Amino acid sequence: MYRSMHQKSTFSFGLSLLVLQILFLAIDCFPHHQHQHKHPSASTLHVRKSLGGFPESHSIQDLDVRGLENGEILERQGGSYWYENIAHGSPSFGTPGYQVFRNVKNYGAKGDGSTDDTEAINRAITDGNRCGQACGSSTTTPAVVYFPEGTYLVSKPLIQYYNTQFVGNPNAIPILKAAPTFAGIAVIDSNVYIPQASGAQWYIPQSNFYRQIRNFVIDISGCPNVTPDGFAPTGIHWQVAQATSLQNLRFIMSQAPGTTHIGVFMENGSGGYLGDLTFVGGAIGMRCGSQQFTSRNLNFQFCSTAIEMIWDWGWTWKGLNIANSWIGINITALSSTSALHRQGVAAIAVLDSVMTNVPIGILTSGTTNTMLENLQLNNVPIAIGYSGGPTVLQGGDILIDNYGDGNNFVMTGSTMDSGVLRGPYGTSAKSKASPSLRDSSGWFARSKPQYENVSPGGFMNVKDAGARGDGVTDDTIAIQTALNTAGSNQILYFPHGSYIVTDTIRINPGARIVGESWSEIMGTGSNFEDISAPRVMIRVGTAGQTGVIEISDMLFTTSGPTAGAILMEWNIAESSQGSAAMWDAHFRVGGAAGTDLQYEDCPREEATVNPNCIAATTLMHVTSSASGYFENVWVWVADHDLDIPSQDQVSIYAARCLLIESTKPVWLWGTGSEHCTLYQYQFYKAQNIFAATLQTETPYYQPEPKAPAPFTGAYALESDPTFSYCDPSSTTCALAWGLEIIGSSNIMIYGAGFYSWFSWYSQVCLAAETCQERIARVFDSTNIFIANLYTKGSSSMIQGAQSSDILAVDNMDGFLGTIVGWTGFDLPGKLDTPTSVIPLPPWIWDVPNPTVYCHIPCTLAPPPTPILPFQPPPFTATVSGSTVVVTPPPILNPGLDIVPIPVVQSPVDTVVPVIVPAPAIRVPPVAPPGNIPGGALPILPPPIPMPIPLPPPPYPCLQFCSPPFPPVLPPIVVMEGTPLPVGALPPPIVGSSDPEDTSAEEELELGCVEANPLTFDSGSGSPPTWPTNSDVPGWGTSAPSGGNCDWTGSVTHLENTLNIAVASGSDSFSFNAFEIMNVGSVYGISMSGASMQVYAPGVASWSTSNTPSSSGATSDRNFITLDVPRNPLATEILVTGKISQNAQQVQVRIIFEASTSCGGKGIADPAGSGGSGGSSGGGGTASGELLGEYPTHIDGTIECSGSRSDGAGTRNTRDCLFTPGSVTVQGQLLSPSQIISSQNTNGNCIRYGETKNAQGVITNTWCVVYQEAGCAFVIADKRTSFGGCFPGYSIIGGQTFYDFARLSANQCPGTGRSAMTTGPFFPCDTWAQTLCLTNPAHPEICGVA
Fold this sequence. Notes:
Layout: H1 9-23, E1 101-103, E2 112-116, H2 118-126, E3 143-147, E4 151-154, E5 158-159, E6 164-168, E7 175-178, E8 188-189, E9 211-219, E10 234-237, E11 244-252, E12 262-266, E13 273-280, E14 284-301, E15 305-323, E16 327-330, E17 347-356, E18 360-364, E19 369-386, E20 391-412, E21 415-423, H3 429-432, E22 438-439, E23 442-443, E24 459-461, E25 470-474, H4 476-486, E26 491-494, E27 498-501, E28 505-507, E29 512-523, E30 535-540, E31 546-547, E32 549-558, E33 565-570, E34 573-574, E35 580-583, E36 586-589, E37 614-622, E38 628-631, E39 634-637, E40 653-660, E41 666-674, E42 679-684, E43 687-697, E44 737-742, E45 745-755, E46 772-774, E47 776-779, E48 782-792, E49 794-800, E50 804-807, E51 812-813, E52 816-825, E53 837-839, E54 851-854, E55 858-861, E56 865-866, E57 875-879, E58 882-886, E59 895-896, E60 901-903, E61 908-911, E62 920-921, E63 944-945, E64 972-976, H5 999-1005, E65 1053-1061, E66 1068-1072, H6 1073-1077, E67 1090-1095, E68 1099-1107, E69 1114-1115, E70 1119-1123, E71 1132-1139, E72 1145-1154, E73 1199-1200, E74 1224-1225, ...
Parallel strand pairs: 1-3, 2-4, 3-6, 4-7, 5-8, 6-9, 7-9, 8-10, 9-11, 10-12, 11-13, 12-14, 13-14, 14-15, 15-16, 15-17, 16-18, 17-19, 18-19, 20-52, 24-26, 25-27, 26-29, 27-29, 28-30, 29-32, 30-33, 31-34, 32-35, 32-36, 33-37, 35-38, 36-39, 37-40, 38-41, 39-41, 40-42, 41-43, 42-44, 43-45, ...
Antiparallel strand pairs: 19-20, 20-21, 22-23, 48-52, 49-50, 51-52, 55-60, 56-59, 57-58, 61-64, 62-63, 65-72, 66-71, 67-70, 67-72, 68-69, 68-71, 73-81, 74-75, 76-80, 77-78, 78-79, 79-82, 81-82
């Protein structure tokens, strides 16, 4: 769940700061969590003493210690653990040689209880240039930090980097013991507060994903009440989001009167799950606040306050065992009017719990929706009471069967009864539940197995069956072989990696599967591409099968396009309670390395659907014959790119998230489901479902397009919402459902948060809860129980019987609408009628005489008709209270909206599309200045009325400069039949064949080329290169005196590669270097002491100008290096480049480092530039275009240069290994059947120009069709003036592209080398084409003689 800047940031990122401010209103320690929070609220000061004065009528034994299979910590018993002695994996898309597993003792930790192991453990954590401060997030640097048996003394926090698991030996639980001199926020810190940064942290709390801590004793009992730096000693600072867990932990804290110790501190986030924790002693066991969370099986003994809640939207507690504590749960925090949005503790549910010898069970301020069920009180005089006020619910020695406090709604048939509940529910969920969902303690639960009693011989490594897990090799057969071989006799272990599968994997009863740091099974290939005929990637059992299946620590994903993928079909039914189960296993579609569904592929700025970004039909389907236990399972269609620091948003499309049709028991403990087009959860004809905290989000891109697009006309299920009930003019109706319950019974939900944060990336709708009309609905169902429902952005919180809505604005509790209960009995309703509005595919305007299908009568909704690209004008906007001028990027695929077309004549009709009156172009959201995680929201520019007014000089008029307007559109033939899927490929274009055409040309003319739209790289370029150890000055190095060297104290190295557009007909371009890199005083980053280098292949010269005015720099090379002026200090540097060849865009690399005068090493000249490196000014001597070089063979022989000194050689020929499926060429994922053209249209050529020979004669044109930083793939074509049959451009196949790159890398290894060969294009029996690999700076050497 991502909540920052371009994501739901107005509330959540601000919350991470303001909650902290409010959190410490009574103390003076912001942004720290210091020792005063031993008094987290004034109302609890009177209990900060020993329990000796309270009569204990119930004696309490020591906390129950059960076997690990029940989730509790075992006594320390010694023995090794299989995971320590088994092979380990590495990330498929990360740095070669990177190790996921790291044993702390291999990094110098002793674990002897006396040696300070802090530095050794932190070395183990950080090894490998991992994702720390300024990284944001990363999927390519996971780690498992393993702790063998021992007592590890620590003196400062162990910083848990992003995507990290801390794992202790469960057979000999390691102890993390805080030294008496311990200083810092907590023994383990999951999110570091940056000093002097106004509360900023390393990671955005709401997107701090992928973390685990399990199997530890954390002992802070030897710490004083105040650490040397002013904190209350704390076990774990746990500020996290989805895909995170704490398991099997014991916190040992001081039991002295007046102690300030805290077990777990979590002040923000969006979780999440934790369970099997024990807290002994301390002021507070858990001090916690988060959007929503699920916690299970927690024991507290001798804590002054067991749980003190800071804030929440909803929290479900199950299996609390609180003994000998003054307060069980304190929910009074943040109840003052000064809290952000007056957001206190909005909702809690406490299930199947026991409190013994606790004077106040729940201390309340009266604003929290409270749900209790099966709560046993032993010597608890006050069950619920106000601080210093009356008792709300009397305690004693009683069992509270069920109790609710808050707004409650009961719907029977079509009649709704509502009111404020303060007492038992009329009919409780527990009373209607099937015994199959419960055990002797209440709702059934089962902790994740760790197989601690199994030796390494009890595991089979999937790689032993031939799987590679390298993100390239097809592992389908190997994985299936391993599953069949392991059977029920061995546990199948997946070392970390990405395991490619191209067809269905079948998991049979008896299988037990465990991954390493979320090992990935990644579906890809043609079997998963057909949107109309989806295919299952993972099939778990078959219909009718029962037995044991266990899956843990795995991740299921795709590499797009995979519009027809069903990631998992779950058919297995349990043979005993909970025997078919999955823990800490997640679904992720897009947003990560290797998926081809990242920001550069699917940017949010694309206003129309890119078919290559349609990534799944269904993520998970639990079928009617199945049952399942699912704990901490996150089903996520990515909303942002995890592998770029700015975490830019992406638009990725998947139809359905989690569909459950089972009538057998299903448990959902701490699950989330986000960003699918139709729905996030659907329970259809289902029975006997228990859920503890459901969490959803509506896709951020909706209503662009409106649901069900882009899946209209594709594979459909009878229960799919059709949105036929929506007014076609509404922009808030046809949006994804958070939850649908249809034709179902006996559904018990304890906690549900359904959120709609955006309307096409705008959050203006949040204030009035108008982002969408409805987000949850229940019909044709009975015995539906929802306790604690909380929603944001939706006008209706829930609709019953397709008629009665509960409105959010009538039930606001802080920032969200919140109710304590919604119950439905015998609700009528029926499935949606098929929609008669048929969206048409985007290629409809590219096909001559288009023919489409629908069930007549119908209404066609054509896509916008394309017009020429154009540059939107600048506009003013308010960002963080300041007025700024924003210039949107060029719109490369604008279109004019079309009036919906009624079709009435059957079986064939011909209709004429008409552009809407007063058409306007919608401009995609624009990232504001300072595009950083947690910054300002995206800006939605105003629409641009059409026709475009004539621009003032010197801008040329490009379109609609004279009538007619609007353009005349071709007629569409409509026939009776099944509608075309919006994501379907276009039909072939049939035409005459030229007998002289080559086979490749014939294929091109016959429409055999895939016609997917070109994707536009809108500026991401290559990922930034983040600091390495070599970038950091050696210890003890100090900056010379005599100048202000702020840069060395802020950022050591900053680098990015961006694509800069060049205006049509222009030979130069300009940009503000500070603005484009988000640095300078505007962004709070001083540039004093920085050195800058700008480099771009194809640029002939550079110049700079500064504000305030000072002397600029010039260079007649393809790079320029200079120190940022310091007298006066430049607040902006305008950089102008003059290009040497025709280009639509230029790839520019910008580097900032410390200047040599401030202790820096100097920025070396770019590879391939021909420079000598290390200069801090100018750009050296001239380096113009090079003369052409020509193959000497005409048989396809690859000819290699030596190591070149003229800059035309590749950085390294290894950079040219472009394998199928690994790169996007001309808008398509490289495949052997792809047709690649050198025609300079539609962005086919990254750069385009001419080659001259020694006599100055132009011999050929050239086209760069693909480039990375160090290598360009060039196609050169003979000039048309040399012969009448040459078209002036040529084509090659994807296989030729791949073969030439592969063979050249093998035959011409090394740095600074180029390669060329004659190409296969040979018209008129004449050699007319050359293929080359060169440095991007000098493609002009590729000549055709």
